[in-house]
Amino acid sequence: MYYSKLKQKNQLTLPAQILKMLHIAMGDTLEIEVSPEGYLLLRPKKLVDASDAWLLSDDVQESLKKSFDDIKDGRIVISSSADKMIEKLDNGEGL
C-alpha cells in the first residue's frame, strides 16, 4: 500500500514505485475516474496527434484485429520478395 498527501494547489505526488510500475513520468496524462464506492481510479493515457486519429477508427481497429488473428492462427504467407509473394498467392498458397 502506498500513501500520498494532497499539497498546495491540489497537487498529489505519486510514489516513485508506482511511476515505475505504470511506466509513467512527469508530464504524462492520467485519466481520473471516481468509482461509485468513492475510489479514485487513475489510468495512464497517451494523447494522439490529430493527423494520426484515423488509426483509432472502428474500421482500422477491426482490420488490425483480423490481421493479428490471422497471424496468431497461422494464416500467413512468408516470402522473400513481393514477386514471390504474388506467385505464391496466384498458386493458392496461404489462402
Task: Describe it.
With about 100 residues, the chain is an alpha+beta fold. It has two domains: about 10-45, Pemi-like Protein 1, Chain: D (Ribbon), CATH 2.10.260.10; about 50-90, no CATH class. Helix content is about 35%, strand content about 15%. The protein contains three helices and two strands, in the order H-E-E-H-H. The protein has helices at about 15-20, 60-70, 80-90; strands at about 30-35, 40-45. The protein has a two-stranded antiparallel sheet with strand order 1-2. The chain is elongated, with a radius of gyration of 23 Å. The N and C termini lie far apart (about 55 Å).
Defining traits:
95 residues; alpha+beta; single chain; Pemi-like Protein 1, Chain: D; 2 domains
Spell out the blueprint of helices and strands.
Elements: H1 16-22, E1 29-34, E2 40-45, H2 58-72, H3 82-90
Antiparallel strand pairs: 1-2
Structural class by SSE content: alpha+beta
Number of strands: 2
Average pLDDT over all residues: 90
Largest sheet: 2 strands, antiparallel
Based on CA inertia axes, which overall geometry fits? elongated
Helix content: 25-40%
Strand order of the largest sheet: 1-2
The portion of residues forming beta strands comes to 5-15%
SSE pattern: HEEHH
- Rounded to an integer, what's the Rg over CA atoms? 23 Å
Whole-number count of domains: 2
Task: State the low-pLDDT regions, or none.
Answer: none
Number of contiguous helices: 3
The end-to-end distance, rounded to whole angstroms, is: 53 Å
